[in-house]
Amino acid sequence: MRTPKSLAPLFSAARYHTHTIPTVTLNHKINDCVRSGNVSDARKLFDDYPHSRNTVSWNSLISGYIKSRHFQEAHKLFDEMPHRDVVSWNTLLSGFRDAQSPDKALHHFLRMMASDRRPDELTFAVLMSAFLNSEFDVLVPQLHGLVTRQGLDLNIYLGSALMRGYVGLADRDGFRRVFDEIRVVDVVPCNVLILGYIEFGMMNEAKTAFDIMPKRNAFSWSIIINGLMKNKMVDEAKEVFDSLHEKDVVSWTAMMRGCAQCEKFTEALDMFPAMMSSGVRPNHYTFSSVFDACVGCSSLVMGSQAHACLLKLGIPVDVVLGSSLLDMYAKCGDIVAAFCVRFHANEESGVMELDHWRLCKARTCR
Fold it and tell me: Whose CA, among 36, 167, 264, 297, lies 20 to 30 Å from 364?
């Protein structure tokens, strides 16, 4: 009877080693699953190797739940963590930001402050983003003061988040003060500076900030074009657009949308074939702008041609684009086409070609 007792620890040890892999390997596998969107496989790995976990394992799975928008599972897993680091807290706060739950973000930030974990620059950047356009944006100045007391640097992400917060409060002085405090300024805070000036109606300052930018990206060109068009400064927007050497889909779409909003419908439609000729592939935002311009000048012919191009390119139709397409056919007088688009909107994706043939058949029978 002693033999089984003496062998039992050996069997136990063998079973332990069978179900253990290096922690680095486990974390790598979990991250691979998270990146590919297989959060259920990530959870299975997490559950199968409990002795191989570390804090990174927990953080990776929480991040996977948040990316797949399983916020309750992320919150539950966070509460089960034996040890939390600042990454754990930041990951959870980003989940509440994505879930548009600023109240929960604030609650857990206060929990974090009461724990032994000190918030870092990313913590405040995430929190600022969570508070934007909510009743909690009044806390932005207090958070700014807390950042200063904590001795944290205003990096480009935290500084940009603070600037957006002050724009939401219509605080020009605070907005500009934060920009001046950012130690290393690159394209991100410069873009926010231009956006803020546009929001405040200070177009001269926005244009000056754009002109003196040491480096620009596609978003820089898009926001200044949108801002100029929003303020009916069509000629200035065209000048900026013409000075852009490499025009992409964002800049082309910004010009078309701006022209349509300024009731320059023909000019907006003329840009579409020019864009296609340049080799730039349109997206659903481009087509939405084209259909809106077709409505403005009642051009059913151009609208139908754009619709055919949309089908040929195989661009998926979302709610916004579907609404623009329906609006174009209805307001340009083709009720049959409008009905077919509406029929497609109520079915599964991929029925657009079938609707196109139904549309052609209906027109032939008329």
Answer: 297
SS3 23: helix
Q: What are the CA-CA distances from residue 5 to residues 9, 84, 150, 268 (Å)?
A: 8, 39, 58, 85
pLDDT value at position 161? 94
Measured distance CA(26)–CA(174) in Å, rounded:
46
Q: How many residues does the chain have?
A: 366
**Residues contacting 95, CB < 8 A, separation 6+:** 62, 65, 66, 71, 74, 75
Each residue's pLDDT tens digit, 169-203: 999 999 999 999 998 788 999 999 999 999 999 99
d(CA 143, CA 178): 13
State how far the Cα of 286 lies from the Cα of 324, in Å rounded to an integer: 11
Angle at 261 between CA 257 and CA 265, to 5 degrees: 80
- Give kind and range of the element (H or E) at residue 61: helix 55-67
Residue (of 114, 122, 107, 193) closest to 153 by Cα position:
122
| Residue pair 115/140 in contact by the 8 Å Cβ criterion | no
The one-character DSSP state at 76 is H
Q: Which amino acid is at 333?
A: G
pLDDT at 97 over 70: yes
Output the pTM of the full model.
0.76
Q: Inform me whether the pLDDT recorded for 104 exceeds 70.
A: yes
- Quickly tell me which residue has 């409505």 as its tokens: 295
The pLDDT of residue 283: 94
